[in-house]
Each structure stands twice: as C-alpha cells, then as structure tokens.
Amino acid sequence: MTHSSAKKTSPNQYRYAPNQFVTVGKIRFAYRELGPRSGVPLVLLNHWGAVLDNFDPRIVDGLSVSHHIIALDYQGIGLSEGMAPLTIGEMARDMISVIEKLGFATVDLMGFSLGGFVAQDIVLKAPGLVRKLILTGTGPAGGEGIAQVGAVSWPLILKGMLTLRDPKTYLFFTSSPNGRRAAKDFLTRLKERQLDRDREPTPRAFLRQLSAIKAWGRQAPQDLGQIRVPTLVANGDNDIMVPTSNSRDMARRIPNAELVIYEDAGHGGIFQYHSDFVPKALAFLAA
C-alpha cells in the first residue's frame, strides 16, 4: 500500500497528521492536530527531549476518537523555532500564548513527565483556561528526586548507547519480562510514522530542558490546593525518573484528584498500559 492510499483510508491516525505551525511574537511553534474539530480540545505536552514523534500513537489515536487533539512542540524543540527555555514557568507561558493564538478559550491538558510540570504551572497561571487536567509520570515543584533526573538518566543513556538500545528502554520501563516487552512495543510504535517526521532535539536544547527540570526540582512547592479543576494522576509503581511517590503526593494535594498506579511499570506506565489508560482518560474527560 502506498502512503497516498494509506492517507486516504486513515486520515484519523496520528502518524498521518501533518506538521502545522502557529507564530506567537516572532517565534513559530510546531504542532499536530487530530480528531473532531469540536468540543474542548485536549492539548498534549511531552517529556524531556521529546518532539512530536514521541507522543504514543496508540494513546493519541485512542483519545482522538472523541476529542480534538493538539500535540505541541516546546520552543526550541523539534520544528519549533527559538531557544529552549531554562524554566518551566517560561514553557508554561509559551504554551498559554500558543493555545490563545490557536483561538481556544478553554482546553483540557494532558502532560507527561516534563509536560506534567508545565501543565500544573499553566493551571496555576491561567486557571480559567483549563477545564480538566491529566498528569502522567510527573511530579510537583520541589518534588522528591526531580532535581536528580540527570544523575539517574546519564548512566542509563550511556547504557543505551553501549547496548545499542534506545535509552527509553531503561528509563521508561521496568527490567521485568513485561517491562522489556512493553518497551519494545512502544519504541516500535514511535517509528510508525514514515514521512514528515519532526526534527530531533539538539544537544543544547536537551541540556537546557534538563536545567529547567532541575530548577523545578529545587523550586519551592506550589500550592496545589489552588488547582480546582478535575484532575487525573497516573504513573507506574516503579518510576525511577520522577519517583512514583510524587504522583501520590500530587493526588493528595490536588482537591479530589483521581489516582491510577500501574503495577510492574515505570515512568512510561501509561504507554505500557495504553489499552487500560485510554478508556480511563476518556471516561475522566467525559464525566
């Protein structure tokens, strides 16, 4: 099957969503859009060093069945122009500006890892903008172990190079047979898109984002009691990047938050359990 015929039959798959651009100030931001163009859009915010091709297509496709999905690249990452910000606060302000420029008065937000930091900050900075919040594999400002993300990650990034495996194998998944199988499946899914892939992050952008993550880990805790929107928190029970204790902590501090912890799963618990997570997220958004 050629790409053109596949495109005609499957326009509603993330792998075929075109790269689009919106300019805020002097900076052009890259995004992809999927799903029905009605209702409250669901904005997706991704992890450290992630570009548009790092969103799990199973999760995006599953959510796009009934939701208008907007997946974004941060400034200075992938096809977005500018310089990667050194603070989560700047990333949050960027994303608020992009959402407003796209013409949305209300959105739902789903942030994974770094994206969860940014999502929390968006809700606190612009509470009227967000209707519902999904925080996955993430933690609060000043959260346990967040300032140590680099120290935990570098040896496993090196291990990935030495074993010729994507470091996410070790960083996002457990070393059990389940974890290894889930890692392989996830990394295969990320390669499904053949055409018009996003640009890989530069080493400089990667390091600047790490600085922002460390600063978030050292920041004074925020008053999560001010988050008044319905919130779903999800993670694996063995997250070594943003320790799982942070998910429990956020769920305690955000009023009426719902918590889902997946067994024998790491940072990428929602990718490992995508077939459980997608219906949960859809039910949460529909409630």
From TrEMBL:
SUPFAM superfamilies: alpha/beta-Hydrolases
Gene3D superfamilies in UniProt: alpha/beta hydrolase (3.40.50.1820)
Domain AB hydrolase-1: 41-271
Name of a matching Pfam family: Abhydrolase_1
Domain of life: Bacteria
Protein name per its UniProtKB record: Cultivar specificity protein W78
